[in-house]
Amino acid sequence: MKFSTRGRHSLSLQPYHPSTSLLFGRTNPSLTTMKFSSFASGLLALGASLASAAEVVKRASLQQVANFGSNPSGVKMYLYVPNKLATKPAIIVAIHYCSGTAQAFYQGTQYAQLAEKYGYIVIYPESPYKGTCWDVSSPASLTHNGGGNSNSIANMVTYTIKQYGADASKVFVTGTSSGAMMTNVMAATYPELFAAASVYSGVSAGCFATGTVNGWNSTCSQGHSIHSQEEWANVVFNMYPGYEGPRPRMMIHHGSADTTLYPQNFNETLKQWAGVFGYTYGQPQQTLANQPASGWTKYVYGPNLVGAYGTGITHATPMFPEDDLEWFGITGNNNNNNNASPSKAAPPATTHAAAVAAPTTTLLACVRPSTAPATPSSAAPAAPASKGGCTVQRWGQCGGNGYTGCTACASSTTCKKMNDWYSQCV
């Protein structure tokens, strides 16, 4: 905002003039009062204008922030600041899917709409790569301060906390598909930043590792990366060596009919975070039918880990933003706004011993009780349906090297190549 020289002069006191400033050799108090009153009003108006000029982004609309600090991997930052911004607001980082954008995720989810009601800020990162998947495969992104996508997103968080005086203890992250993979990675690489996370149709942190930037890992996507909870937990610990502080509470969603990121990834993700928090995988404290919606089952391992498994749900998993807000502690009775207890603490008394299971190479070695989520198989997941007579729904996989499943996309969608290993119906 610019201020003209003329405008600044209009706020100055007028030159002394004896015919108007003195009465019988003394200053006219009413005229002096009027001029100082005008001067003060002008200063107030100028201050308001300066405050407006200092506003980082226009409120109640999605705005790009170009300079948020170090951005080693070129991720774009978009910000939504509600009109009714809370004092020391919370922050939600909402991460889009492959082929998505910040704008699409802003329009396609309710986080911004609910921000007007609850006063929090939403950060929408945008992938810099063709196909807009996230880099959840390179050492840079899978390491704390490694210089990858995770590093750039973390810098968006610290920038927003500083610019808006946000509550650093109320920062949360969520995402779907590739964004869900990045959500797990953010929780693993920057545990000190986040209080809780909600994951929709993702894979374990580190499961997609290829050693390359923005790589595709078919072994992981098809559910063949099967390890013990101890092994998976060590993957998390190795992303931030030496960190012993609190870690974000995790809520994991997945569908039984997902043929893009196979349902086995739900089990592996639960194993990973069960190992981190000291729970025993396959032994939830509670099993709740038809939550968060009909056809879903919720598995509550404790205050730090919840899984939700949707029967018949494809990769296009519905998101439950109001449930997320309750999990985050922004609404409802969940008052645990601070990060969860340290990762290596003993599990709650209602679970088994503190030691996690011995390392294994396949899930077959893990004995699962009847309350464990149903999956196509306890070994490798079933292969996708054959190409003939089947249709892939929006966001599902429709091609790629080594892919043998359906290639016909549902009405109003087309099969788009994201990389050599993955094509998606969009």
From TrEMBL:
Residues 390-426 form the CBM1 domain. It holds the Pfam family Esterase_PHB. Its main location: secreted. It comes from the Eukaryota. PROSITE patterns: CBM1_1, CBM1_2. Keywords: Carbohydrate metabolism, Glycoprotein, Hydrolase, Polysaccharide degradation, Secreted, Serine esterase, Signal. It is found in: Secreted. Gene3D superfamilies: alpha/beta hydrolase (3.40.50.1820). One of its GO terms (biological process) is xylan catabolic process. The keyword Ubl conjugation does not apply. One of its GO terms (molecular function) is acetylxylan esterase activity. InterPro entries: AB_hydrolase_fold, CBD, Esterase_phb, Plant_Biomass_Hydrol_Est. Its EC number is 3.1.1.-. GO terms for cellular component: extracellular region. Esterase involved in the hydrolysis of xylan, a major structural heterogeneous polysaccharide found in plant biomass representing the second most abundant polysaccharide in the biosphere, after cellulose. Belongs to the carbohydrate esterase 1 (CE1) family. This is Carboxylic ester hydrolase. It comes from Neurospora crassa (strain ATCC 24698 / 74-OR23-1A / CBS 708.71 / DSM 1257 / FGSC 987).
